[in-house]
Amino acid sequence: MTKNILSIKGLSKQFTISRKGLQSGHANVLNKLNLKVEKGRISTILGSNGAGKTTLFNMINGFEKTDEGSILFSTDAGTDTELTKLPPHRIAQLGVGRLLQGMSVFGQLTVHENLLMAARPRVHPFYLKSWSKPTESLSLLQEANSFFNKFSMDLQEIGHLKAGILSAAGQRLVALGMLYVSPASLLLLDEPCSGIQYDQLDNISMALRHLQNNGKTILLIEHNLEFVVQVSDICHYLNGGCIQLSGESRLVVERYKTEQAC
Amino acid sequence: MEYLIHIGIILGIYSILIASAQLVIGHARLITLGQGAFFGAGAYFMALSMIHLKLPFAAALLLAVVGNSLIGLLLALPAVKLKGDFFVLTTLGFQFIIFQLTYNLKGVTGGSTGLGNIPFIKLPGIWPGNESSYLLLLTVVLTVLVFLLLHRLQKSTFGRNLRAMVDHEILYKASGRSEIKIKAQVIAISAGTTAAASALFAVYMNFLDPQAFNLDKSILILTGVMLGGLTRLRHALIGALTITLIPEVLRLAGLPAAEGASIRQILFGLVLVVLVFYAALKRHNQGERDMK
Q: Which domains does chain B carry?
C-alpha cells in the first residue's frame, strides 16, 4: 500500500468581498475539499482560472488561514502533523517546499547564495553559530552540480551571478535546483512552465523527473495540458470548490478538455 | 585642541547612531522614527546605573546594551508584524512613550530639570592627557568596535538572510525562516549598538535632558542615514560628518546660536526633501530604462 504524504479533509475557505468598506458578499473559494497525495508521485491539480488552485497551495503553505478542515502532512520521520495552525516557516521546516508563481528566486542574491538559502544547514542550537562566515559546504555544491549538469549549466560559471539577471528559464531551473538541494519532501510547484519558451519545456519536465527520482513528492499546478500528460502520474480536477475527479492523468485531462469546451 | 576633541566625540556618537539606524532603515528596510528614543533609553540606563548602582563605565555600558536590546524586543513584538506606514507610526508612538516616560518620571529621571552629576570615567593613572582626550580615545575604540560588529554581521549568514528577506519576503518564509524573528533581531541589535553612543553621550555631557532625545533627534538620525547612504557602513560616516559639521559651519559663519539652530533645522529639512526627490527621480529613470 502506498502511503499518503498529504491528506486534506473538508477544507473550506471563504473570502469576504468588500466594497468601500461595506461587506457585500462572500466567495466560497474552497468548499469541503478532500485530497490525498501519494508519496513519491507527481500529481497535478487542474482547474480554470479562479478555481482556487493557488489558494489551496497557499493554505497548505500557511500563507492563508483555513476556515475549517484539516491538512495532515506526514513528515520524513513518519509522524503526521496538522498544518492548519502553523506559521509558514514552521511548515517549510517540516518539509513542504514551494515554487512560487513567477519569480521564485532571490534576485539580489547570487545563485550560490540562493542554493545556500534553500539548503538550510539548519537550526543551530546556539544562535551565535550563524554569525560565522557563510559556509560553502562541499557536499551541497556536488549535489547541486549533479542537478545543474543535466541541463549543461555550469555552477562554476553561474554561481557568482545574481539570480535576477538570469533568463526566465534559467531562474526557473535555479528555483527547481533550490528545491532539489532543500530538505523538503513535498514540493508544491505553482505553474513551473509559465513564461518559459517552448524549447525549454523539456528541461523543466526533466528537472521534475529528477526531483522525483531524488525522493521528492510533487504536487503541480499547470495549464499546459501536454506537459501535464507527459510528466504527471495522477490528476485532480478542481471545480466548484472541491475535487470533482481524480485519476490517471490522460483520462482526467481528456475529461477536463471536454468540460472546458462546453 | 579642546574644540577638535569635542567635534571628534560628537562625530563618534553620531557615527554609532547612524550606523545602528542604517541596520534597521537600510538593511532591513524598516523606516523607523524611534532611534532617538533608544538613544535616550540607553543614556538613562547608563546614567542611572552609574549614579545609583555606582557601576564602572564598562559594566554600566554592558547593562545599557542589554537593557536597550530588551526594550528593542519590546518595541519589535507589536511592530514587526506591521508593514510600511503602520510600522513607522508604531515607532513614532514608541518615541513619544519613551519621551513622556523620561519627562514625567520625575523621581527617577529628574523630569524636565534633567539628571545631573553623572560620574566621569576613572582615568587610568598612566594616562598623560586630560579627561576629554581620554574620552576621545574611548569614543574611537567604541566606534570602531560597533563598526566591526556591524560589518561582521553584514558578511555573516545573518546578513545574507537579511538581504534575502528584504528581496523576497514570501520566498523567505517559504524557505523555512521567520521574517518576524529576523526583523525583531535587527531592531534589538540596533538598539543595543545605539547604547554605545548613549554611554559616550551620558558621560561626556554629565547631564541628561529628555529634550535631547525627542522626535527631532530621531528625524536627525533618519536624515543622517538618508544623507550618507542606506547600506554601506562608510556612508554612515559621511552622514555623521555632515550632521556634525553643518552646525559648526553655521557657527563659524558668525550666526548667533539661536538663529543658527533654526537655520540648521531648515537646512536638514531641505536636505531631506531634496534627497527624497532625488531618490524618486532615480527610481523613475530606472523604471524608464527597464522599459526600454
A: 2-252 (1.10.3470)
